[in-house]
Design goal:
heterotrimer, A mainly alpha (305), B mainly alpha (288), C alpha+beta (444), A: 305 residues, MetI-like fold, B: 288 residues, mainly alpha, 75% helix
Chain lengths: 305, 288, 444
């Protein structure tokens, strides 16, 4: 204790630098996120929109915006759409990533061309989502190359309207998200796997464990922190899903708004300058996001015990 | 003991099969990653008339024509490219520098609000930016910053996700004894951060710079709400305009060329830097 | 209940006060001269091309800038999809008063679908205030003036074109199926909707689509309605539009046409022989501007189209030129308006060079009788007499300022019904929902 005391005093004298170094973050956060958040919440209690050149409001209307949103099931449908498309993309993503990651990190497989494959699978992550969506829109149109190829191969007789069908549209969105993100996840997981002490694997090998056993009994549990990280970031990213379905469906979320995500719905209100409804919607989204994140966080924590 | 022997034998037999499966899957996913860009390249070389006649796997000769019509068209593509580079570049720079600084503040110092700040930043990490977009747009409009890059660049300073990554990385890569040594040598805190901490954080900074750059480069939601004038529009906004009426008078060759214009430069740069990027991503997370 | 009435009253009061406020503000933003930059807001390069080709002093600098004398012309082009053009224009107009001289809008273009929205405000300058007289405009078709006349009877814009629509059919297909491509004979096959439907079946038997998309015939129905889209802030769907839905659904189910969105690549496939599309519906600008006449291999390029009246008369689009309050180039704006919309020689040039239907009766009547004139796209046919007859008949009494949103969303929503993804009721709900999102003051 005695010897610690002067040291502690010394630390204290530097501690103000903790605050100083936090200034940029705090200031920028306050200005560009906290103030907007407060005004967003504030707006949600007002009727405030522009119809053409006529401004209506702002008029205080209490919770009317929220009541209006919950008076029909739309928001739940959009939430469901968002989750469906996220799950459709995330499940194959995590499976493929785990598989590729374990192959890449397994020295006994001695895969050749690893650098090439890693380069290739990471590539789509760098592609502008809007350009990628635009590309898919043209590729999968009735007269586009994909239909053309399928007809040439004799798989189809007449063009299939991918974007006029609920599930093919959703699957396209999910597929694009999968292609764009599985490389990134693979590399993260692989790095995590390589970080596992090889002595553990050697010990398992001596004990005669199969590679499947090694994977489920050693690799997976040790990867949990990274998996949780991947899952949470992916879920948050999934809730923000916007660019791909927005451009693929031209903002309509068609067919029958089955690929309309929460953010696309928010964007509709923002775009038509309906600040009251957009505010209320933002508040609801905020709550949904928070709840989901907590859920995932708790769930993964519990499992650890 | 017996079973163990069996397993080792199985494993020995399996390794070739497993390797074969691995290669097949890898080739398959590589195909899924590259096929679209191949089609894009082919179609960018074909004229509209050829495109209407269906797909062929061989490039045609109209690359120059399509390029010409894109360049002389009404979409300000070069402006878009430069604007995107500016926004993404500065975002990456500010984001990584200040996130490292924030992480360092939490990592290296002991102060009253430390715990609170850390929890706070983690908590706000999950708030999507879109949720505050409304207030953000109003704020930007009140600050008269519409049609400028400031609202797209400066907010990158407060990036909780990057902060979190940096903090994790510091825990394994930045021994506080180094900082102590620097203090004994009389280095000021700010100087220590710039001269000692930053260089040590280089791998993590590189990874996060790339992430931030890509994220900002790809961002469509916020810029679309802030930028309305043609001369400041970033590439994603221009791309989205392709989806609207008047389709550049239905020249699909030009449409493909525009998509290619926004995709291929990135692919080229990536191919040159791929070794560094992929290793960087991996390296960062090993330590993290 | 009480609260609602109260808040409704409040809103009305506020809107009223805002309107008055706006009036005061805009009225002070009068027109001046001597500006160095002429800002033009538009949604495509049609007007730009007219100015470039037919306004005497215009020099092109690049795709979005030009020069007239020492004035720089800036083209601010925003494609109008999902109201993007209007939103952009609205934002700019609301800032007009405080904008720097070089940033002030001088000219903005509007379409019939939402003309009233701008005409009925002080953001559009009366053409009289620019010094354009009734005599200047005497030769224009009356309907082109009706659209841009505000509720007080003040004319707020001018147009160089008229947009009576016709049915444009593929000559080769007509020969193949009917044995003739003579417009008079083909007209008998498309004289009314029942005949058209029978013909569609006939075309289908030979492997052709009657139209590229159901949306092609939309305008023909929607221009022959008997009510406005919005009456007392309630959305009303006209019977004729429901007839469009019914007829279209039958044709889609039978495989005689598709549900492509207009202006999409799939929709425009029919501009090429491979598309196997019998007809499109459109006015003069459509033939010239949209049918890929400049592309090798297109039907238009080979002069393979012909025009006939079709089942019902209609009009589509049309572009009006408005001067913005606060313009600092009033004299130049006036000159552009006069030269491009009233000068008979220039307008005759436009017909000859671009096959547009211009807003000038003497010029059009002369050209219609001129046997030396023919449209290349239409295989040597002179369709102008047909257009002239149509232009006199156009009735615009059922326009409302919500037409753009309603027409666009109605087609979007019904696509779901046609594709079999929604029942009719679901599709109608989608339509109401989408319009009310854009215009929260409306209900159904």
């Amino acid at each position: 204790m005695k010897s610690a005391k002067p040291k502690r005093g010394k630390v204290v004298s530097y501690n103000k630098w903790g605050y100083i170094f936090l200034i940029p973050f705090v200031v920028v956060y306050l200005v560009f996120q906290l103030i907007p958040m407060v005004t967003t919440i504030y707006n949600s209690f007002f009727e405030n929109y522009r119809s053409g050149l006529i401004q209506v409001g702002p008029t205080f209307i209490g919770l009317d915006n929220f009541i209006k949103i919950f008076s029909n099931a739309d928001i739940w449908i959009y939430a469901k759409n968002t989750l469906i498309m996220w799950v459709l993309g995330f499940v194959p993503q995590i499976i493929v990533s785990l598989l590729l990651g374990s192959w890449f990190s397994n020295p006994s497989l001695r895969l050749k061309g690893q650098r090439f494959f890693k380069t290739v699978i990471y590539l789509p992550n760098l592609i502008m989502a809007s350009a990628f969506a635009m590309l898919f829109f043209t590729l999968f149109s009735d007269g586009g190359p994909i239909n053309s190829i399928l007809i040439q191969m004799g798989i189809l007789d007449t063009p299939f309207s991918f974007l006029s069908n609920v599930w093919s549209t959703r699957i396209l969105v999910a597929f694009m998200n999968f292609i764009m993100w599985f490389g990134n996840t693979t590399i993260l997981l692989m790095a995590g796997m390589m970080g596992i002490d090889t002595a553990l694997f050697e010990a398992a090998e001596v004990d005669g464990a199969t590679s499947t056993q090694v994977f489920f009994k050693i690799t997976l549990p040790l990867l949990r922190p990274i998996l949780v990280y991947v899952m949470i970031t992916s879920l948050i990213g999934g809730l923000q899903m916007f660019d791909v379905p927005q451009i693929l469906t031209n903002g309509t979320g068609d067919p029958v708004r089955s690929s309309m995500t929460l953010i696309m719905y928010l964007n509709k209100h923002l775009y038509s300058k309906n600040f009251g409804m957009a505010g209320a919607l933002s508040v609801i989204l905020f709550i949904i996001t928070g709840a989901l994140s907590l859920l995932v966080y708790n769930f993964s924590n519990k499992k650890e015990k | 003991m017996k079973t163990a022997e069996n397993h080792t034998i199985n494993k020995g037999l399996n390794i070739h099969a497993r390797r074969a499966i691995a290669y097949i899957v890898l080739v398959l996913v590589s195909f899924l990653c590259l096929f679209w860009f191949y089609v894009l390249f082919i179609n960018a070389t074909r004229s509209h008339g050829e495109l209407t006649r269906g797909f062929t796997p061989i490039p045609s000769t109209h690359f120059g024509d399509n390029w010409e019509s894109l360049m002389t068209g009404t979409l300000p593509v070069w402006n878009g490219l430069i604007n995107s580079l500016i926004v993404a570049g500065f975002s990456a720079l500010l984001c990584t520098y200040f996130s490292t600084m924030t992480a360092y503040a939490i990592h290296a110092y002991d102060f009253k609000l430390k715990k609170f700040m850390f929890t706070f930043i983690l908590a706000v990490m999950t708030i999507p930016t879109q949720v505050t977009a409304l207030g953000f747009v109003q704020l930007v409009s009140n600050m008269k910053l519409e049609d400028t890059f400031v609202p797209l660049i400066v907010p990158a300073i407060a990036a909780p996700v990057t902060f979190f990554y940096m903090k994790q990385y510091m825990e394994s890569a930045l021994p506080l004894s180094l900082v102590e040594t620097a203090r004994i040598d009389g280095s000021g805190e700010f100087h220590t951060f710039n001269a000692i901490v930053l260089p040590l954080m280089k791998p993590a900074i590189a990874v996060q710079a790339i992430f931030t750059f890509v994220q900002s480069w790809n961002n469509y939601f916020t810029p679309a709400l802030i930028l309305h004038e043609d001369k400041v529009k970033t590439l994603p906004i221009l791309i989205a305009q392709l989806r609207s009426a008047d389709w550049l008078k239905f020249d699909m060759g030009q449409v493909y060329m525009m998509i290619a214009f926004s995709i291929f430069p990135v692919i080229l740069v990536y191919l040159f830097l791929s070794k560094f990027i992929v290793q960087g991503v991996a390296l960062g997370s090993v330590k993290g | 209940m009480k609260k609602k009435v109260l808040s409704a009253l409040l809103v009305t009061a506020m809107v009223a006060s805002m309107l008055v406020g706006c009036g005061d503000k805009a009225a002070s933003g009068k027109a001046t001269d001597g500006g160095k930059v002429l800002n033009v807001y538009c949604w495509n390069d049609e007007f730009q091309r007219r100015v470039k080709d037919h306004y005497p002093d215009y020099q092109e600098v690049d795709a979005t800038t030009g020069k007239i004398g020492d004035v720089t012309v800036k083209w601010n082009i925003t494609a109008d999809q999902d109201n993007a053009y209007q939103n952009n224009l609205d934002a700019a107009l609301l800032k007009q008063k405080d904008a720097a001289a070089d940033d002030k809008i001088d000219i903005f273009l509007i379409e019939a679908d939402y003309a009233l929205k701008y005409v009925d405000t002080d953001y559009a300058l009366s053409v009289k205030d620019l010094g354009i007289t009734d005599e200047n405009l005497a030769n224009q078709y009356q309907y082109t003036k009706d659209i841009v006349t505000d509720s007080k009877g003040v004319l707020k814009g001018v147009s160089w074109q008229g947009c009576p629509g016709v049915l444009i059919y593929n000559r080769d297909i007509a020969k193949d199926v009917f044995g003739t491509d003579d417009p008079a004979e083909v007209q008998k096959k498309v004289a009314d909707w029942d005949t058209f439907k029978a013909t569609a079946a006939e075309l289908q038997a030979k492997g052709y689509y009657a139209m590229s998309s159901v949306n092609d015939s939309y305008r023909v129905y929607s221009n022959n309605v008997s009510t406005k889209w919005v009456v007392d802030n309630k959305i009303v769907i006209d019977e004729n539009l429901m007839k469009w839905v019914e007829d279209s659904k039958a044709m889609v189910d039978a495989g005689q046409t598709n549900t492509y969105e207009l202006w999409g690549d799939d929709w425009s496939k029919g501009f090429y022989p491979e598309g196997k599309v019998f007809c499109y519906f459109g006015p003069a600008w459509f033939v010239d501007f949209s049918m890929a006449a400049d592309k090798d291999g297109s039907i238009a390029n080979a002069g393979g189209w012909a025009a006939t009246e079709g089942p019902q008369g209609f009009f589509w689009g049309g572009t009006w030129v408005c001067a913005a309050s606060g313009t600092d180039n009033a004299a130049l704006v006036k000159d552009i308006m006069l030269k491009l919309t009233t000068d008979e020689a220039i307008m005759t040039d436009i017909v000859k060079a671009d096959n547009d239907f211009v807003n000038n009766k003497p010029a059009m009547n002369a050209m219609a009788a001129d046997t030396s004139y023919s449209s290349k796209v239409l295989g040597g046919q002179n369709p102008l007499a047909m257009y002239c007859a149509g232009a006199e008949k156009i009735d615009l009494s059922n326009l409302s300022k919500y037409d753009q949103a309603c027409n666009e969303e109605f087609q979007h929503a019904m696509k779901n019904y046609f594709d079999g993804n929604a029942t009719l009721d679901q599709a109608l709900d989608l339509f109401y929902k989408a319009v009310e999102e854009k215009h929260p003051e409306l209900s159904h």
